[in-house]
UniProtKB/TrEMBL annotation, chains A, B:
Residues 40-173 form the HTH marR-type domain. Pfam families: MarR_2 (PF12802). SUPFAM superfamilies: Winged helix' DNA-binding domain (SSF46785). GO terms for biological process: response to stress. It comes from the Bacteria. This is HTH marR-type domain-containing protein. InterPro entries: HTH_MarR-typ, MarR/SlyA-like, WH-like_DNA-bd_sf, WH_DNA-bd_sf. Residues 1-29 are annotated as: Disordered. Gene3D superfamilies: Winged helix-like DNA-binding domain superfamily/Winged helix DNA-binding domain. GO terms for molecular function: DNA-binding transcription factor activity.
Length: 174, 174
DNA sequence: TATTGTTATACTCTATAACTATA
DNA sequence: TATAGTTATAGAGTATAACAATA
């Protein structure tokens, strides 16, 4: 297959250089903050920006240390707090489609953190059960949440944190 | 390649059925809400749950109608509000790595929504400029934000919305 | 016929290393 | 030697359709 250039040449040729010398690349003057324009009123934008912070915190405090992805962490904590649950309920709680949940459970089962038990009352259904290893890993990872959240203490007061979570729950609508 | 079963058989055989009849599958009793346990204090969990709502709203109001992805929308609105910007600044503002930004700009440039202009003062650098088509699409998509946000009116008061955005900005830390 | 869960698959999103060109 | 941007590539995340087993 012939390779085609994906990008047209820039429209300003290099010859169009300004004569005047300019600030060096190691600049001391900070960039002015960008105007958000319409974005400043778009809740989803701010949610996404906040997620950059929370995802980064998660990776450092829990993802890396315990080898867990965000959804895996949530799923395990739900099992710890509620006891065995069906894939269906887990999928609803975590907004996961069936196929993706299947693969997720496969990974956690391969690590011996949980197992699938067939429902005694409905042969189509399963109960997802934490193994002993799953329980202890989840407990440890759960305790790592506290220091993670404490990282926000210099950005949010305790009252602000509570208020923020309450407002996010209203947006989530459940 | 021989196909190997990815999943071990369930450990409870079908014979282990309870004798007592049980609620039919078309159940009228709603599932009890799950306990969040540790998750109730994990800000990132609530941010992710709220994002399910905002992403869904975005898809219906802007993503589908205008053929824009979330980051594309944000990027275009930043250009509309600030005029030409370098890829570097766009990447910083939107938390995009260089390679991903390059592909993103390729797509938008292929749609003739923006173009790359070489900086007159630094041959390494570029200015990303909205085309006329890009400007008008962005303007239209920008106006669609208002009705989208109004969908939240039954979940958040005006004051709550403002408070929420303010708190999310603190979390984002910029 | 409807529901639970699975398989196969593809597309989007994000991350990393190596490279080009300019400075 | 450092910076801006690109290329190539792989991995994670998410979506859809078709299927099996059970109800």
């Amino acid at each position: 297959m012939p390779t085609m250039p994906r990008r047209a040449p820039l429209d300003q040729p290099p010859e169009a250089r300004a004569a005047m010398p300019v600030a060096p690349s190691t600049r001391r003057t900070a960039d002015q903050p960008l105007s958000l324009g319409v974005l400043s009123d778009v809740l989803g934008y701010h949610v996404a920006q906040a997620a950059v912070t929370t995802v980064d915190m998660f990776e450092r405090h829990i993802g890396q240390p315990y080898g867990l992805r965000k959804v895996e962490y949530s799923l395990l904590l739900l099992l710890l707090a509620n006891g065995p649950l069906t894939p269906k309920r887990l999928g609803q709680a975590l907004a996961l489609s069936g196929p993706n949940l299947t693969l997720l459970l496969d990974r956690l089962q391969d690590r011996d953190l949980l197992r699938r038990e067939r429902s005694a009352t409905d042969g189509r259904s399963q109960n997802i059960v934490l193994t002993e290893a799953g329980r202890s890993l989840t407990q440890a990872a759960g305790e790592a949440a506290a220091p993670m959240e404490r990282e926000l203490d210099d950005r949010l007061s305790r009252a602000e944190r509570l208020m923020l979570i309450e407002l996010l729950r209203k947006v989530a609508g459940r």
